[in-house]
Design goal:
alpha+beta, 2 helices, 3 strands
Length: 64
């Protein structure tokens, strides 16, 4: 996910406080997050979060 702008840093912090643990509790992982260290060509200077989601059928038992 990307954030084109953050107009309310407190709201973002509250969201991160709830979403981060929920993502981890579901077995997913936050691989990277933050602002870019460099911009190339027409890159945007925006916050980016990369999340690895687990595949649902890998964690739930198959129905008989």
């Amino acid at each position: 996910m990307t954030y084109h702008s953050v107009s309310d840093p407190d709201a973002l912090a509250a969201y991160a406080k709830l979403s981060g643990p929920a993502i981890l509790a579901a077995g997913s992982r936050i691989l990277a997050r933050g602002m870019p260290s460099n911009l190339y060509e027409e890159g945007l200077h925006q916050r980016t979060v990369v999340i690895e989601f687990v595949i649902k059928n890998q964690i739930l038992p198959k129905a008989s």
